[in-house]
Design goal:
The complex is a heterodimer.
Chain A lengths: L11 E7 L6 H6 L7 E7 L6 E5 L2 E5 L1 H4 L2 E3 L1
Antiparallel strand pairs in A: 1-2, 1-5, 2-3, 3-4
Chain B lengths: L1 H6 L3 E5 L6 H8 L5 E4 L6 E6 L9 E4 L11 H12 L8 E7 L3 H14 L3 E6 L1 H6 L2 E3 L1 H8 L2 E4 L8 H18 L13 H18 E3 L9 H11 L12 H10 L4 H43 L3 H18 L2 H17 L1 H15 L7 H6 L4 H7 L6 H10 L9 H11 L6 H27 L1 H4 L9 E4 L7 H35 L14 H14 L2 H8 L1 H4 L6 H9 L6 H9 L9 H11 L12 H13 L4 H11 L3 H27 L4
Parallel strand pairs in B: 1-4, 1-5, 5-6, 6-8
Antiparallel strand pairs in B: 2-3, 3-4, 7-9
Helix pairs in contact in B: 4-8, 6-8, 10-11, 11-12, 11-13, 12-21, 13-21, 16-29, 17-19, 18-28, 21-29, 23-25, 25-26, 28-30, 29-30
Classes of the chains: A mainly beta, B alpha/beta.
């Protein structure tokens, strides 16, 4: 099972599900990370965390731990 | 209930996600009576005004803070959503204008859909169609209106195109409400679980797919990009809203969010921000300072050498001056912050710094409040409301007093003069920079330590998260930035002003009474000398001196005497008062020279009354600097900290911890340096 946290820079993936065990899962859904969406890892900060994903026409920065609850198909 | 509603002026509220063009719309529609209102008991602000006269609508318009959904995720959002449903003064809106960015419709329609589901009467204003057009797409408004279930207008925030249509729709809807009654939205209608959230998303994704239409060029052919997209749609996996963010933004981010260059540019931008706060503000601060000294000396001449004259010039006018002298720095800080925010950089700064800050229990979102702390702790503490995690928010508030606020600058400026060799004036700037770096490093260490003991100090545990949109880069809207900076400056005056003023007057009282007209032997003295000697005798026999003598035992171990002690007590009103009270105490009266240089001479000659040795030496000056870096000497900060944390526990802890830390470190510095052979 691959998650968004494991994407390499410039790599794309399709969201399969959001892991509900992450306490922030609802906000992650609300900002647009929903199953079926394509995401692309655009930038990571110098410490590899947070990561900026392209989603629904915008960029959203998430911590690695949050990206880890975005399960890719 | 209906009669009450009928009497009420109709209220139109703008609601939308952050960066959806809400405020631009507000600027188009707002007219007279512009004011910012607070949700009672909080600092969440709204701009309201009556609708611009030329539109001929009897109603008010309100610009609410950006929210992502009707499910709150931070104290700020909680307040925004509460007041959307039922503002204690304004009630619920008659009409909601929801804003959505055309180029990220499927994200922004979530809130619109929730608003409609909750029972608000909604008009959807679609913004930034020009951005979408650059991607060779446009939105079919009529179809969108039919699918989403509310009226839709496309508005161009730059040209104002579409505003008239929006106004017509507002008019018609308000008339409709007048006849059929006000909507009664219910938050229970918002279902918070994952399944219903995904259902709404599925719905709006379908809507988006239907209403997006490719734009054909003059030949009637599909543009290349659009054609490519049409081809992509054949691929079922890629069919949904998968355009990339703005290409220019991606290019800029290749540098500004680059693994290494990103961090380097971040530090460069911060360095420029800091230096300009001081450089640009400096002439303005001098101007304010001179204005008030002139005013004080005029009123002193006018009212004569009476208690009343002294109250007006030394108490009230100087007190007001000490509030206003920091205004230039605060305005400039907020101007720069506003520009950085409006261009879209601030969110990126928060992202870059999130990891190191999270190591010490803070959050990338702590970055802006901490930065504001360099101007003034008060707006900085208010700015922590965007931090959704309570532990991180309290920890940020906890360490904000350690940020070297601008009130400490005149103190450092005065003290540095004693450390700077006369032939090397540039050393002064270096020392100042060192003080700032020292204060940043020590506040981070303090945060790490407080975080270690958070169970006892902060007593909050909450899941930490960092989810932040990085908006497309755009040119800042200067008038809005200016207006917001002035608003923030007003906030500072309202919050800090009264306390500083009252304390200045109290201090004046303590230094003037009880011996108001001391008897002195004035033979062979001219008027000026008489008034100088009178002033110093009055001070030596004043309540302030009594107070100072009580604290003498505390001052002796750190090599200082009661006069510095009194100034330190006085600086509780505001740190910068330290300078003016030193001036008063060291028998300085304005003799035409600039107040600082005569103060310097007086300080240089001052002897410690207990030991008879020179009072201001390298070690005591260093000790004082250390004291000012750590001590919490600001009543306004404590009051705001009490308000923002909800109890006295944290402000009292801050006061005790930081002030005793300051004293202990000063003790170590002074005696350590003496042991090492410094004077």
């Amino acid at each position: 099972m691959r998650t968004a946290a494991e994407l390499r820079s410039g790599e794309k993936g399709i969201i399969n599900d959001i892991d509900e065990s992450n306490p922030s899962f609802k906000r992650i859904l609300e900002v647009g990370f929903t199953p079926g969406q394509e995401i692309e890892l655009i930038n990571t900060s110098a410490f590899n965390d947070p990561m900026a994903f392209s989603i629904r026409g915008t960029l959203i920065a998430l911590r690695k731990q949050e990206a880890g609850c975005i399960i890719l198909s | 209930m209906n009669t009450k509603v009928d009497l009420q002026k109709p209220l139109v509220t703008l609601v939308g996600p952050p960066n959806s063009g809400k405020t631009t719309l507000f600027n188009f529609l707002s007219g007279k009576n512009l004011k910012t209102v607070n949700y009672p008991g909080s600092t969440v602000e709204y701009s309201t005004s009556s609708i611009m006269e030329k539109y001929n609508i009897n109603g008010d318009i309100l610009d609410s803070p950006g929210i992502i959904s009707l499910q709150p995720n931070s104290p700020d959002e909680q307040v925004s959503i509460d007041s959307l449903f039922d503002h204690p003064h304004l009630g619920s809106p008659h009409l909601v204008i929801a804003t959505a960015d055309a180029s990220q419709l499927s994200r922004h329609l979530l809130l619109t859909k929730q608003l409609i589901n909750a029972g608000f009467k909604v008009i959807l204003a679609v913004t930034m169609s020009d951005v979408l057009l650059r991607k060779d797409y446009k939105i079919n408004d009529d179809l969108l209106s039919e699918k989403i279930g509310c009226e839709v207008v496309s508005v161009n925030g730059r040209t104002g195109e579409g505003i008239d249509e929006l106004v017509d729709k507002i008019k018609r809807n308000l008339k409709d409400i007048e006849q059929n009654g006000k909507p009664d939205p219910k938050r229970e209608l918002i279902d918070p679980d994952k399944i219903s959230l995904l259902e709404i998303y599925r719905e709006i994704e379908d809507v988006e797919e239907e209403v997006l239409e490719p734009v054909f060029n003059n030949n009637g052919k599909l543009n290349l990009k659009a054609a490519n997209r049409e081809l992509n749609i054949i691929n079922p996996e890629l069919k949904r809203g998968n355009y990339r963010p703005d290409e220019i933004t991606l290019k800029i981010d290749r540098i500004l969010l680059h693994r290494y260059w990103g961090l380097i540019s971040f530090f460069l931008i911060m360095a420029v921000t800091f230096t300009s706060i001081f450089w640009i503000a400096d002439p303005f601060m001098r101007l304010v300072d001179e204005l008030f000294s002139t005013l004080a000396s005029y009123s002193s001449d006018l009212l004569g050498n009476t208690w009343f004259g002294s109250l007006v010039s030394d108490g009230i006018i100087s007190g007001t001056g000490s509030v206003l002298v920091f205004l230039p720095q605060i305005i400039i800080l907020f101007l720069i912050l506003g520009l950085l925010e409006d261009t879209g950089y601030l969110a990126r700064g928060a992202m870059l710094i999130d990891k190191p800050l999270s190591k010490i229990g803070l959050n990338g979102r702590s970055f802006v409040p901490m930065l504001s702390g360099f101007a003034c702790a008060i707006p900085a503490m208010l700015a922590t409301r965007t931090i959704s995690n309570r532990k991180e928010r309290l920890l940020t508030i906890f360490i904000i007093p350690l940020m070297s606020c601008s009130a400490r600058l005149p103190v450092y400026a005065l003290l540095i003069v004693f450390l700077t060799p006369g032939d090397k004036p540039w050393m002064g700037g270096l020392i100042l920079a060192a003080i700032y770096i020292f204060s940043i490093v020590s506040s981070l260490i303090a945060a790490a330590i407080v975080n270690k003991f958070r169970n006892r100090l902060i007593r909050e545990e909450d899941t930490s998260s960092f989810i932040l949109e990085l908006p497309s880069y755009k040119l800042p809207k200067i008038p809005i930035v200016i207006r917001n900076s002035i608003e923030s400056a007003k906030q500072y005056i309202y919050r800090a002003g009264p306390i500083i003023l009252v304390l200045s007057i109290v201090l004046w009282f303590l230094m003037y009474f009880p011996n108001t007209s001391p008897e002195i032997d004035s033979t062979g003295m001219n008027d000026e000398e008489i008034s100088q000697v009178e002033e110093s005798v009055r001070l030596e026999t004043s309540y302030a001196a009594d107070l100072g003598k009580i604290i003498q035992p505390v001052m002796t171990p750190i090599g200082m005497d009661w006069r510095i002690g009194v100034s330190l007590i006085a600086s509780i009103a505001a740190r910068e008062v330290f300078v003016s009270s030193l001036a008063l105490i060291f028998k300085v009266t304005d003799t035409g020279e600039s107040i600082e240089s005569s103060l310097l001479t007086a300080m240089d000659n001052a002897k410690n009354e207990a030991t008879g040795k020179k009072l201001f030496t390298t070690s005591t000056i260093m000790g004082l600097i250390i004291f000012f870096v750590f001590a919490l000497q600001c009543i306004s900060t404590l009051a705001v900290s009490r308000k923002e944390t909800g109890s006295w526990r944290i402000p009292i802890l801050q006061l005790i911890l930081f002030t005793s830390l300051a004293y202990i470190l000063t003790l170590i510095t002074v005696n350590g340096m003496k042991a090492l052979g410094f004077s």
